[in-house]
Design a protein that fits this description.
heterodimer; A: globular; B: 140 residues; 5 helices
């Protein structure tokens, strides 16, 4: 029960975090240079972007859950198991956003699901 | 080239951060996600644990480098790198934290990596006419 709940929270927050962060960073644009002043401006722009904020919020929940779970779960199990969020994200894209999912992507998603299933074997 | 270096540093920071967090949390003891008061007390106790701060710092570095990489290139380029990260984390668990990693877990991590490469490849493929949305927007 504890493992299932933890994986559910990690997967949901991971999927939403990735989606919002990717969308937000596309809005922010490319980092022009690695100079300090440009980095500060870039960070300020990121902080003002709603999608980045939402993505960061999801990733914070994801992170706290991960830290707590690491008190009883092994890194070699828990971190790969978080890949389950790719399966959830693909299913959400298909059934909620009505996106076309190519055959290759379904294969990839199936492999990720099989991989997570293998991780849960004793 | 700079994207490869940034992604490599990001993966090392992520694996190092997870190792530090695991080490720190094991010192603190087992936390139940369903027991709010015990969880709060444990997290407060964690604030005084240097290993946890080091782990948080390294994952912060990972997050910053990951965001920079996403700003430079497409998610389809970043995803295969994160696939390597899963295998790296299993290796760190096995060889640094001395966790017992059964062959099924190695195989699972390998399958996850392979699956993510397929997802990334599907994103990079040119979209067919009338079928553009799902093939151009990352894992979601």
């Amino acid at each position: 029960m504890r493992t299932v709940l933890t994986l559910a929270v990690l997967s949901l927050c991971g999927a939403l975090g990735d989606l919002y962060l990717a969308k937000g960073m596309q809005q922010v644009g490319a980092l022009p240079t690695l100079r300090l002043r440009a980095l500060l401006v870039f960070g300020r722009t990121m902080a003002r972007t709603g999608a980045v904020r939402l993505g960061v919020l999801c990733l914070i929940v994801n992170f706290v859950t991960l830290v707590v779970a690491l008190s009883w779960a092994e890194v070699s199990f828990l971190v790969p198991a978080t890949a389950l969020h790719f399966v959830l994200a693909t299913l959400g894209a298909k059934w909620l956003l009505h996106e076309h999912i190519s055959g290759v992507r379904w294969c990839g998603t199936l492999l990720v699901g099989l991989g997570v299933a293998l991780l849960t074997l004793p | 080239m700079k994207t490869v270096v940034v992604l490599l540093l990001a993966l090392l920071a992520q694996a190092g951060g997870n190792v530090c967090l695991s080490t720190g949390m094991r010192v603190l003891g087992v936390a139940s996600p369903l027991d709010g008061s015990a969880l709060g007390a444990l997290l407060l106790q964690g604030l005084a644990t240097p290993t946890l701060w080091l782990g948080i710092g390294l994952l912060g570095v990972f997050f910053a480098l990951y965001a920079v990489a996403l700003s430079w290139t497409e998610l389809s380029v970043v995803l295969p790198a994160t696939a390597v990260g899963y295998i790296l984390n299993v290796a760190c668990g096995a060889y640094i934290l001395h966790e017992a990693v059964p062959p099924a877990r190695w195989a699972g991590a390998g399958l996850i990596g392979l699956g993510l490469c397929c997802v990334a490849w599907s994103v990079r493929r040119p979209a067919r006419p009338g079928r553009t949305r799902g093939d151009t927007c990352g894992p979601c």
